[in-house]
Amino acid sequence: MMDPDLLLRRMVEIPSLSGEEAALASFLVETMRSIGFQASLDEAGNAVGLLGNGSKEIVLLGHMDTVPGVVPVRIDDGKLYGRGSVDAKGPLATFIAAAAQVGALPGKRIVVVGATEEEAASSKGARHATQTFSPNFCVIGEPSGTRAVTLAYKGRIVLAYEAWAHAAHSASQAGSVLEVGVEFWNRIKRWAEEWSAGKKMFDRLDPALREIRSGHDGLEESIHLRASIRIPPALSPDDVRQQVEGLKPGPGQLRFWGADPAYRAPKNTPLVRAFLQAIREQGTEPAFKVKSGTSDMNVVGQVWNCPIVAYGPGDSALDHTPNEHLDLAEYQQAIAILSRVLTLL
């Protein structure tokens, strides 16, 4: 068995932006093979490792890809720094190490999936996994902290708005296409704020402007906006799309992608009970989380319709930040907890 700390460091040292996961996937396949898995790459570029051949299938689905940004890899005061250490190579390394630790279990088939393109809003790897596996239990690899499991994620839709117009003098009384685009975004914000008034975090609409660009070549000016909207359970992505279309000003093009509904897993399942027991056996009191973000749980949960949680070491407040790091003691505790869960199921 490769030392878990070394496994994680090697994973973090291999860059794996969304759509560029091939090097990490190959490393994981070779590593899993060396520690007893049947491992291979699938058609979506996922790294898949299998242990055991029982009828009870347990899928541990993490993602290999990261957002851009170089965080120098180092260990300082027991913490591993690096892009992806928390989101979500730490949870995926936990899956591999825990499965290897328990080995093939009677009556169980453990499947570890390192999925592609979770951060790209396409969830290519997870969508392919829904066509390949039909698990009895599923754990999604996302940071929850060792003492908590995540039961719910908001949905999401991503949109882009582009508009062009003939250039006008800055003294002209006519509104510029830039002002039209900014007003469109303000309409979306006002609608979300009015709809969300008085609601708790998980029940609110959360629009976020991700990109804004303007252009001017002397003859024509243009604006490009890209945004995401986090969607509560009371609304569907189609509800949000129709509302945003109704807010759009006359000129311009509007397109949508990455639409996934919110998902909430049941709390009273054998999987949740196994986690509660395993966490308590580590001397800590378990907790539940719901998150305003989106994960591959939104994709696979509604298809597999099996007991499911998200679990993994790390503080999700460090996701995508220049200070992203994972406490290695917490990582080791997560491996112990998940190993116990696998034996309890």
Provide key terms for this protein.
345 residues; four-stranded antiparallel beta sheet; alpha/beta; 29% strand; globular; Aminopeptidase
Q: Could you give a quick summary of the protein structure above?
A:
It is globular and about 70 Å long.
Write up what this structure looks like:
With 345 residues, the chain is α/β, with parallel strands linked by helices. It folds into two domains: 4-153 and 262-344, Zn peptidases (Aminopeptidase, 3-Layer(aba) Sandwich); 155-260, Alpha-Beta Plaits. The protein has nine helices and 16 strands. Strands 1-2-6-3-7-15 form a six-stranded mixed beta sheet, with helices on both faces. It has a four-stranded antiparallel beta sheet with strand order 10-11-9-12, covered by helices on one side. A hairpin with a 5-residue loop joins strand 1 (38-41) and strand 2. Helix 1 (4-13) packs antiparallel against helix 3 and helix 3 packs across helix 9 (328-344). The longest helix has 20 residues, at 177-196. The radius of gyration is 22 Å and the shape is globular. The two termini are 23 Å apart. Mean pLDDT is 95; it is low at 169-174.
CATH superfamily of the largest domain: Zn peptidases
Oligomer status: single chain
CATH class descriptor of the largest domain: Alpha Beta
Q: CATH fold name of the largest domain, please?
A: Aminopeptidase
| C-alpha Rg (nearest Å) | 22 Å
Distance between the termini: 23 Å
From the spread of the alpha carbons, the general shape counts as: globular
Kindly give the count of domains. 2
Which structural class best describes the helix and strand composition?
alpha/beta
DSSP strand (E) fraction? 25-35%
Largest sheet: 6 strands, mixed
Give the low-pLDDT segments.
169-174
Average pLDDT for all residues: 95
The percentage helix is 25-40%
Count of individual beta strands: 16
What count of helical segments does DSSP give? Answer: 9
